[in-house]
Amino acid sequence: MFRALVVDKNSKGHQCRFEDWQEDQLPSKPVKVQVQYSSLNFKDGLAVTGKGKILRSYPMVPGIDMAGTVIGSDNEAFKPGDPVVLTGAGLGEDYCGGYAEQVNVDPDALIKLPDGMSLHNAMSVGTAGFTAMLAVAALENAGVLPDEAPILVTGAAGGLGSIAIAILSRLGYSVTAVTGREETHQYLRNLGASEIVSRESMEQSARPLEAQKWAGAIDNVGGPILSRVIAETHINGAIASCGLAASHELSATVMPFILRAIKLIGINSTHVTRAHRLAMWKRLAELFDDGFWAGITETIRFEQVPEYAEKITNGQVRGRVVVQIKDD
Q1: Contact at 8 Å (CB) between 99 and 62?
Q2: Continuous H helices in 52-196
Q3: How many other CB atoms sit within 10 Å of the CB of residue 147?
Q4: Is 19 exposed, middle or buried (0-12, 13-18, 19+ CB in 10 A)?
Q5: Lateral strand order in the sheet of 233-241
Q6: Residue 290: is its pLDDT beyond 90?
Q7: What global pTM score does this model have?
């Protein structure tokens, strides 16, 4: 028996509760992992609260991230005792995820814990940090260089935004952060933001082409803010789009893409080749030490997940939230 947070949807509506499960209630997959930590992403908040259509079937254990120890394996690449990490790749959406003391997973997206990184720190990274690294790499591949105009990061005080700012700053980019919370300004400057602009100003309607301000951007909110970012991006600039915390809608014209040759790059952290996944985790492990992760992370108990799911969907969470599934 093991403890799991289970979401169900039936004639009584959306339900979320802790249950004792048995192994045969999990999907049959090659690698069994005892989960030590998970994390809380915006997508997890939507799944737990029922505010978004995240889960593919019911009942379902949410949690798109997990870090733990292999306790059984039919795959030669993993053996009992291996510390491992899995983010996304259908975990907690298509099949039972990280909000349980045990998961059964496919080996395709499972990786061994990177050298120099603890299981706890791996969940400080989680899907948010992994996506931030993918977004920065996409800007690099698009030719956005550190010696050009600033990079804009929206939703800056959230987990993805926080790590994106820190990565960009460490790579020599000048970063401008967008936030609607004045109390986060010093936090963002400590991460490496050199300038801060208000969310309210970025939500104002934009003409098809505005004054050129940004060499590139990482946007995880969508909606009117992304429309303005597109209109304000420099010639040959690039925008990595990796979230829709504000809206899934986008109002824009083709003018910035044709007249300024800007690139709008979609970031999907679920469907990533194994080689690229390993490369991104290696860079994250090399860029940051334990002190950095401690500075942006709050650790909560397993039973606090429903409470914090409400908080993250209401924009009340700063940085990253790690969920301690089992006691040390």
Answers
A1: yes
A2: 119-141, 159-170, 185-191
A3: 8
A4: middle
A5: 195-198, 175-179, 151-153, 214-219, 233-241, 263-266
A6: no
A7: 0.92
Q: Domain residues of the chain, as ranges? A: 2-113+293-324, 128-266
Three-class SS of residue 28?
coil
SS3 169: helix
Beta-carbon contacts of residue 88 (< 8 Å; ≥ 6 apart): 64, 65, 109, 127, 130, 269, 270, 272
Over range 100-117, report the average pLDDT: 94
Query: What residue has token string 């194994």?
Result: 274
Strand-pairing partners, residue 73, are: 31
Distance, in Å, from the CA atom of 161 to the CA atom of 249, rounded to the nearest integer, reads: 20
Residue-wise pLDDT for 74-103, tens only, equals 999 999 999 999 999 999 999 999 999 999
For residues 86-97, one letter each, b for 16 or more C-beta atoms within 10 angstroms of the residue's C-beta and e for the rest, the string is bbbbbbbbebbb
Paired sense of beta strands 2-10 and 13-21, if any: antiparallel
SS3 9: strand
Written as one letter, the residue type at 43 is K
User: Residue range 236-265: average pLDDT?
Assistant: 94
Domain 128-266 is found in CATH 3.40.50.720:
yes
Assign a CATH topology to domain 2-113+293-324: Quinone Oxidoreductase; Chain A, domain 1 (3.90.180)
In DSSP terms, 115 is beta-bridged to none
| pLDDT mean over 261-287 | 94
Cα→Cα distances 234→92, 154, 165, 177, Å: 38, 17, 19, 17
Q: What is the DSSP letter of 99?
A: S
Tokens 């979320």: give the residue: 16
2-113+293-324 and 128-266, same CATH topology: no
DSSP 276-287: HHHHHHHHHHHH
